[in-house]
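In practice, a research group might receive sequence data for several interacting partners and want a quick structural hypothesis before committing to experiments. The following worked case mirrors that situation: the sequences arrive first, and a predicted assembly follows.
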Amino acid sequence: DADVTQTPRNRITKTGKRIMLECSQTKGHDRMYWYRQDPGLGLRLIYYSFDVKDINKGEISDGYSVSRQAQAKFSLSLESAIPNQTALYFCATSDWDEQFFGPGTRLTVL
Amino acid sequence: GENVEQHPSTLSVQEGDSAVIKCTYSDSASNYFPWYKQELGKGPQLIIDIRSNVGEKKDQRIAVTLNKTAKHFSLHITETQPEDSAVYFCAAIQSQGGSEKLVFGKGTKLTVNP
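A structural hypothesis for the assembly, expressed as C-alpha cells:
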C-alpha cells in the first residue's frame, strides 16, 4: 500500500463550492505539507504542520484552510472555490529533510 | 526569504548523452539541497541530495555539485536513458526560527530521445 494517499484523485467542481482534499500517511511522520503545482511555476507551499497542534501558513495560503485531525491526517479545504484554484495539489510528509509525496489530486474549478 | 532559480525549463537530449540542470539560491544560510524527479502522473520523489559540508555527491549515473560561494548547485545525469525523461525539481531548505521548509525551483522537463 502507498505510504501517502490522497483523496480524491480527481475532482471537478463549480465556482463557490466548498471542497476538501484529504491526505493520509502511514509513515509515522510528524511533519505534513500541502503544495500546489501549476505548469511553469513548480511546487508552491500552501500550509504545513510540524505536529498535531501546529499549523503554519506557506507561500500561498489565501483562499485555503487546513485541519490536522491526527498525526496521520492533514486536510486541505477551499471554502469557496474559484477558477484560478484549478491546479494539481500534493500532500507530503517528512520526519526531517526528505519529503515523501502523495500521488496528487487534480482539481478543476469551473 | 529564500528564492530558488532553476534552468533550463526544458531540456532535450539524445539517449546516451549527458544532461545538466542548474539552480541558484539566495539564502546563504541554506544548508540542504535535494533534487526530486516527477514522472508523469506521479508525485515528486527524491533522487539525490547534498548538504553544505560537501561539494559533490554521486549515485550511479547521477551526481550533484554544490558551490556555496556562488550559491549554485547542479544535477548531472550521465548516459541518459528514456526512463530518465521526467520533470526535475531542485530545492533548498529555508530555515526560519527552527521551522524549516523547502523552497522549490520551477522545474525542468527533461526529454531523452531514443
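Before designing any experiment, note the following. Chain B has no helices and eleven strands. The interface with chain A takes residues 6, 9, 32, 34, 36, 41-46, 49, 89, 93, 99, 101-107 of chain B (CB under 8 Å).
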